[in-house]
Amino acid sequence: MNISLRQLKVFLAVAEHGSFSRAGEDIGLTQPAVSRCIRELEQELGLKLVDRTTREVTLTEVGASLSATLARVLDELESALRDTHGLAEERRGRVRVASAPTISANLMPECISACAARYPDITLMLRDQVQTLATDSVRHGEVDFGVIVASEGTDDLVGEPIMVEPFLVVCDRSHRFAKQAQVTWKELNGEKLVLLDYASGSRPLIDRALAEHGAYCHVAQEVGHAITVFRMVEAGIGISIMPALALPAMPGLPENGGRLVALPLVPQLDRTIMLVRRKNRTLSPAAQSVWELIQQFTTNTPHALATQTTSKP
């Protein structure tokens, strides 16, 4: 049965006014259009709903019964549609976001604070996980979306880049690199490295760049957290290659008595931070608001760390 909401509303208008012309004036249709809607409705139902004369339109017994029921049903339908529209405007509830450690520590706190200020009825819950687990949390629907490092193997997700940041060489101020303005990839050849392990989204990018530039290094230690990397570099175990976003975890800068220096790599290698969500899944209004807030935060207020390239003694 192919009956439209428009036909039903036209029928109710005719039932109320007892006239095609007055019904048309009420709902903004011409008399022929009203007549056509009623005729199509009767054909679809296989029943006669109105009796027409040159002077008046009256409901048949079936038409009167339908009119009484239909008015209540359409009122309930309109009420349900209004409620649904209200949900689309609602900005409340709990939003779960997964992010990789350097992002969790150095980008998300400000986003959480901004969310609390703009949407006081939304609670943003952060799941701080290594890249692989954060991505899996998105895939399995354990979180609304993720903030991760762009990498291979995420084609099954919808991704949107929000930020680009460079990798830097981090070394002790006693290292020969500390006196340079920048470091080339080839100069890394033969160096001992302390790197984040393969649970990090950055590691494949670093390995690929080292191979492309012919820098053959000994990886002295592979660890899971940025602060561990920096402590090992301080201890003289090796130097490191880290994303700029990790720098807040770095011990005090040389001018403040610290031992570590961060220098640009040439040619520059960047990593992309992106928002990811499941394909064919619509975010809730609250989650969509947080997604857009993070977009705006990284676009309109460029994070200082994303452009920081060097810290020299």
Automatic annotation (TrEMBL):
GO terms for cellular component: cytosol. PROSITE patterns: HTH_LYSR. It comes from the Bacteria. GO terms for molecular function: DNA binding; DNA-binding transcription factor activity. Keywords: DNA-binding, Transcription, Transcription regulation. Residues 3-60 form the HTH lysR-type domain. It holds the Pfam family LysR_substrate. Transmembrane segments: none annotated. PANTHER family: HTH-TYPE TRANSCRIPTIONAL REGULATOR YBHD, LYSR FAMILY TRANSCRIPTIONAL REGULATOR. Belongs to the LysR transcriptional regulatory family. This is HTH-type transcriptional regulator CynR.
